[in-house]
Design goal:
The complex is a heterodimer of chains A (284) and B (348). Chain A is an alpha/beta fold. Chain A is built from nine helices and 13 strands. Chain A starts with a strand and ends in a 5-residue tail after the last helix. The chains are: A alpha/beta (284), B alpha/beta (348).
């Protein structure tokens, strides 16, 4: 289990905290989403958890052992996929994986197999500098799982990917979870979080605003609504009604009775709507 | 650790080859060896070129000097011609001989910028020439003794080998390690290394080994092409290896404190210029103020010269190796701290 306890981080040294009193726990084998807009403190927390940033105040515990006391062997257990592709541009995709794999003391995956898994089988011997942004993103993701990590840190892993490639990566993430891997997923994409995460934490201005499963958050903070499309003279019109609201319910009934209804869809609140409700700002 | 070191070493070798560092080093080595062997002369006259007007009867001085091998085009046939020639050639001076053989008067026409030492040497040469010419006995005012059996004088072109060897190794090593570090910073690949089990030691050793290998390829190529195989390659290798490691550690130590190569540029120029100061002492051995001898490249360049052109000097290698080992130890400790604190853990 991973426990993050009362984490603070100040880049300036003037008491201006980028992250303030952040606490949460991640169960083994769970996909934990860290959801927030740019600059909210997501990457700062992830960087402290992976040892990239020094621990200033608070603690991060892996199976009750503080990250402060972790030796280099700890890095055999984790994999990190960075938001911004950071590769050796002069080396090929294969070489990037081969040499990175050579740093670990644990058995590593075959680079060619990994490249095939992320759809880069045709670019094995191509230099990373010749990769597109999406290809680089996939190579960074492949690198993060080369040591079969127990804990996987993914920072915007689907950013810049087309829907079909994103779907392949999502499948790999789910398969890793099924194999027992604990996954910390940092994103501002509510759909990705909703689809993949067992639980999500909303972070805004360096503080955690809410933590729960997407379903529970929707039940707790969301409002059920119905979207109706109808014919208004020659044009198509649509309206959303919150049926828990009496006025909306009356209007909905009147509309059904008086108009030529084309479609009716029930819909639940999105994570983004809940985020806005809790923090007063959007995720973009 | 050895496995990780070898892994990093192969990776760095590939990066170096793909960055064309090896091509540059080999090309430079061949160009420099070519210049030394075929372009730079074996002897260079550093004093002004003497031009003559022999106004003595039957031009006895001119005849004698031509007989001794002096080029005819250095003689002019009137005072005006000589003045004009000296005026046109700024690195020349004129000598006009007048009167008879027994009573010749020489007039020296100067540019005005020649050091007095040059004029004094010319004065002594003329005086000696006159005595010889008049079949007078040559006066011997001194005797010469040698510390060691006299060695062959080093030709001017070959005398440059230690300079190009040491200072190019220093310059290339310093720049190449900086380029490698800033490339890793810019690409962000260093961040990926930071979340791997890779440590500081193997990181430093790998970089130092790659730069040292380049230094050996560069130095070896130049020395084989200019001096052949008959020198003490073991000692030469030891000096190149220790110097390359030293400069790599210095480059590492400094480059981690800068964000990009533009910020690093000025300090790099300063360090390279400081490292090059001992060239002055190498070219003008009488000028070696104490501060100059403290620059690490100073003893190395003279050590390399002794290896390439032995004068029989004994026991110079051991103290030199000890000094370099001590400097390497100090710089290793400093660069280890800097790489760990600024580059690999909790850095920028």
């Amino acid at each position: 289990m991973i426990s993050v306890k009362n984490l603070y981080h100040d880049y300036t040294g003037k008491g201006l905290y980028a992250v303030s009193d952040v606490s949460f726990a991640i169960e083994e084998g769970e996909i934990f989403g860290f959801l927030g807009p740019s600059g909210a403190g997501k990457s700062t927390v992830q960087n402290i958890m992976t040892g990239l940033l020094e621990l200033q105040k608070g603690d991060v515990l892996y199976d009750n052992q503080s990250i402060k006391n972790m030796k280099s062997g700890f890095f055999n257990r984790i994999g990190v996929s960075f938001e911004h592709p950071n590769l050796y541009s002069k080396l090929t995709g294969y070489e990037n994986l081969k040499y990175y794999g050579g740093l670990f003391d644990v058995p590593t995956e075959n680079p060619v197999k990994l490249l095939g898994m992320v759809g880069l089988e045709d670019a094995v011997n191509k230099k990373a500098s010749e990769y597109s942004k999406g290809m680089k993103q996939r190579l960074v993701f492949a690198r993060s799982i080369i040591n079969n990590p127990e804990i996987l840190f993914l920072d915007e892993p689907l950013s810049g990917l087309d829907p079909s490639t994103a779907s392949v990566i999502k499948e790999i993430i789910v398969s890793k979870k099924k194999a027992g891997c604990t996954i910390f997923l940092t994103t501002h994409n509510m759909f990705v979080a909703d689809e993949l995460c067992d639980r999500v934490a909303f972070i805004n201005e360096g503080r955690v605003a809410a933590i729960d499963s997407p379903r529970n958050l929707k039940l707790e903070y969301g409002q059920k609504s119905v979207k109706v499309e109808y014919k208004d003279e020659d044009s198509l019109a649509g309206e959303v009604f919150f049926l828990e609201n009496e006025k909306d319910r009356t209007e909905f009934n009147n509309l059904i009775a008086s108009r030529n209804i084309l479609t009716i869809h029930s819909q639940e609140a999105t994570l983004e709507q809940i985020f806005i409700k809790l923090t007063g700002r959007g995720l973009a | 650790m050895l496995k990780r070191f070898m892994n990093l070493f192969y990776q760095d070798i590939k990066v170096v080859i793909r960055n064309r560092f090896l091509t540059v080093v080999l090309l430079l080595a061949f160009v420099i060896a070519g210049l030394i062997n075929f372009v730079i002369p074996q002897n260079v006259k550093i004093t002004p070129k003497e031009l003559f007007f022999d106004n003595t009867a039957e031009r006895v001085w001119e005849k004698e000097l031509v007989k001794r091998g002096m080029e005819k085009d250095r003689f002019y046939y009137s005072r005006d011609e000589l003045y004009k020639a000296v005026q046109n050639n700024k690195s020349s001076l004129g000598i006009m001989a007048e009167g008879s053989l027994e009573n010749t008067t020489f007039t020296i026409i100067r540019q005005g910028t020649e050091p007095e030492e040059i004029i004094n040497v010319l004065d002594a040469t003329l005086e000696n020439g006159i005595r010889e010419f008049r079949n007078l006995e040559k006066a011997e005012y001194y005797e010469v003794e040698f510390l060691r059996p006299r060695s062959e004088p080093i030709p001017f072109n070959k005398n440059l080998i230690p300079v190009v060897l040491v200072f190019e190794v220093v310059m290339l090593g310093f720049l190449m390690i900086a380029v490698m570090i800033f490339q890793e910073k810019q690409e962000g690949s260093i961040r990926a290394y930071r979340v791997s089990p890779g440590g500081v030691l193997e990181y430093i050793f790998s970089k130092a080994s790659v730069i040292t290998l380049l230094g050996l390829i560069y130095g070896g190529t130049i020395v084989v092409l200019t001096r052949g195989l008959g020198i003490d390659y073991l000692s030469l290798t030891a000096l190149i290896v220790l110097t390359s490691i030293l400069i790599t550690l210095m480059g590492l130590l400094l480059s981690v404190f800068f964000r990009n190569i533009s910020e690093f540029f000025f300090i790099a120029i300063a360090i390279m210029m400081a490292s090059g100061i001992p060239i002055i002492a190498y070219m003008y051995p009488s000028f070696a103020p104490p501060f100059m001898t403290w620059i690490p490249s100073y003893p190395v360049v003279f050590g390399v010269r002794e290896i390439l052109f032995p004068t029989g000097k004994e026991g110079f290698m051991a103290p030199l190796v000890w000094i370099l080992l001590l400097e390497n130890t100090v710089l290793f400790a400093a660069s280890y701290w800097a790489v760990q604190r600024k580059l690999l853990r909790g850095g920028r």
